[in-house]
Fold this sequence. Notes:
The complex is a heterodimer of chains A (about 120) and B (about 425).
Chain A: H1 2-25, H2 29-32, H3 43-58, H4 76-87, H5 96-103, H6 108-120
Helix pairs in contact in A: 1-4, 1-6, 3-6, 4-5, 4-6
Chain B: E1 3-4, H1 11-24, E2 38-44, E3 50-55, E4 61-65, E5 69-73, E6 79-85, E7 94-95, E8 106-111, H2 115-118, E9 120-127, E10 134-142, E11 149-160, E12 181-183, E13 189-192, E14 212-215, E15 235-238, E16 243-248, E17 255-259, E18 267-270, E19 275-276, H3 308-314, E20 329-331, E21 340-345, E22 358-365, E23 372-381, E24 388-393, E25 403-408, E26 414-418, E27 422-428
Parallel strand pairs in B: 6-7, 15-19
Antiparallel strand pairs in B: 1-2, 2-27, 3-4, 4-5, 5-6, 8-9, 9-10, 10-11, 12-13, 13-14, 14-15, 16-17, 17-18, 18-20, 21-22, 22-23, 23-24, 25-26, 26-27
Amino acid sequence: MVNRYVLAASIIVCGFSAWADNHTAGASTDSADAPVTEPEVDLSAAEKIFKKSCRACHGNKAQGAASYPNLSDLEPAYIVEMLERYRSGERIGPNSILMIQNAKKLSDQEIASLSVYVTTAFD
Amino acid sequence: MISTRSFSKFSIVASLLAGAAVISSPAFSQSGMNTTSLQHEVVLDGLDNPWDMAFLDDGTMLFTEKCKGLSVLMPDGTVNALYGVGETEGYPSNGADLFCEGQAGMMGVAFDPDFDANRRIYVYSTSNMSDPHTNRLMRFTLNEDFTGVSDRTDIVDDVPYKMAASNHPFGGPGAHNGGRVRFGPDGALWLTTGDNHNSEIPQSPTLMGSKVLRMDTDGNAHPDNSPPEGFDPRTYTYGHRNVQGIAFHPETGAAITAEHGPWHSDEITILENGGNAGWDPRPNMAGRGDCPDDYCGYTPNQEEGMNRYERAASMPMTDFDTYPDAMPPIWNNNGWSQGTSSAAFLKGESWGDWDGAMVVGIMGIGFGGTPIGQRIDVIQFNDDNNDVEDVTEMTLPMEPGRFRSLVMGPDGSLYTAIDEGTISKLTPGS
């Protein structure tokens, strides 16, 4: 299980970095030269956030419920991308108000941790 | 197929209490004013949004999954798929016109009271057979060995469906379909519907959303329905928001609904024949101005949380100022809206003081300052059975979930379906 976490963490860091690369491609040269910091994954903290802010909609195993999608089958990088977009206030679908309110409180590390937690904790 | 899990959360205390109960009154398991000892069994797990169940006396259980279809659990534990949604695989026959979207899909289900003689069952589902699409109440014949259905007849084909997204919370297509199907003690067939985020529907005399319909098994209006002049005669009550719970009082026979509130005020209402539930989210009335996409249901602030009483003053669930004769709710969830979705009456001495009490299933996600509310509330009525006397949160012997359906089984257990994919049964006793 630990190995899976490490693997998933690697995937998410890669995914996050890839997204960050794309994101900065159109930015100024100043920001393009800035170092990319890989957020550390804290699964314990992610579990607390999941139980407080995610479980009630997405289910106690992130399996999805009603119109709230399954998260456990998604790729960590995709979850990072979506949480980043919600955090920025972007509306994506009918549950955007819910997601924007929850995502706007998250740090980069918390997003990275959550993305690993929901995709590995319920196997 | 049926798996059993024993819960020992309160094992020592429960054992002591159980021992005392055996000595004093073995049939009564309730051990105090606000608690009960319950056993929990997982009946089916890994389902896709189970929405409703219906039982025969031998324990045969029909159940729906919102995006998959109708199946039956036999007393020996065998599950037979019966009728699929759209192209869903694994069903002996499918409704090609059926589909799921957002809150819509296959919802309520019921056995005919005369099933032994006529083999009829009833299922409510979203269909694209019409354009715009509608929700339909279908009647089927279930074959003798419970392996297939035939003779589909759409006895109601005109319950509105929300075709396009709108600028509202949870504003995707398919919102607010109601969806519960039940037979009353009068032998009539009852169907609950919702407002589709369309402000014209609730008070409309002819659009069949936001209504409670009472019909015969061919879909004809019950002859005793008495809606206002000009209304569709199938209408028993109107002016609802989104009724997903209906049950009938075991002593009075009254139809009682449990209904989602609009970010405030879930309601339980004892229905009155021809009554108006008082939901009217139209713009430019009752002191309101324009509203997003002509639907004021989430005003005055649909972007974030605010005081629920301020919300209720601006956009009441039951608008007594405009409709003084509206049916008064007997419970409003302390002003909160937490997705009250289903209702049933407990039956049997094993439920102790709760025998004859109403239970409501609640699905609250904890949004915009509203507490999470995933629970079952026990509603006890007064001696006149016309008001709520006490409300108790059931102590659950398992993890909570979004309680979409509550149904009393023929074995005296309460069966629950949660959106997360599990049908359970709760049995008094330890």
